[in-house]
Amino acid sequence: xxxxxxxxxxxxxxxxxxxxxxxxxxxxxxxxxxxxxxxxxxxxxxxxxxxxxxxxxxxxxxxxxxxxxxxxxxxxxxxxxxxxxxxxxxxxxxxxxxxxxxxxxxxxxxxxxxxxxxxxxxxxxxxxxxxxxxxxxxxxxxxxxxxxxxxxxxxxxxxxxxxxxxxxxxxxxxxxxxxx
Length: 180
Fold this sequence. Notes:
By secondary structure, the chain is an all-alpha fold. It contains 8 helices and no strands. This is Sigma-70 family RNA polymerase sigma factor.
C-alpha cells in the first residue's frame, strides 16, 4: 500500500478463465522488450538479445502462478534478470576467450594471405615479440593448440590465475609488436 491507496494486482483476468494465448501476451510486452534493449544499450547482436527476451517472456508466461503475484511485474523482472544473465555470460565469454586463428597475427603484421605462411614463419613472428618462456607456453598451447587455461595450469603445476597473468603479458607484448 502506498499512501493509503490500495494497488490492485493485475492478473491474467478472472482466475476461472484460462490465460490469454502467448501471441497476445507477446504483443502487449513487446514494447517492454525493446525498452530493455535500449536501456541496456544492446546495439550489437540486437536480434539475439531480442530473441533471448522473447524466450524469457515465454518462460515467465508458462511458469506464472496467478495466485501469488501480478503477471506484468513478474514478467518484467523475469525478462530483466534473464537479459542481465545473458549479458554477463557474453561479457565473461568475451573476456576469457580470444577468437583468432594462428595465422591471424601474421596477417596483421605483414598483410600476406593465409596461404603465404608456414608455421615456421608464424613462429618467427612470435619470436620477434620477445616473449618470455611462460608467455610462449601460453601462446603455443592456447592459441596454436587450443588448450584451455585450466588445462595449461594443470600441465605446468600452476594456478589458473597464473596462466591468466601469462596471457595478459603475452597479449600486451604481441599487440605492441604487431602495432609497430
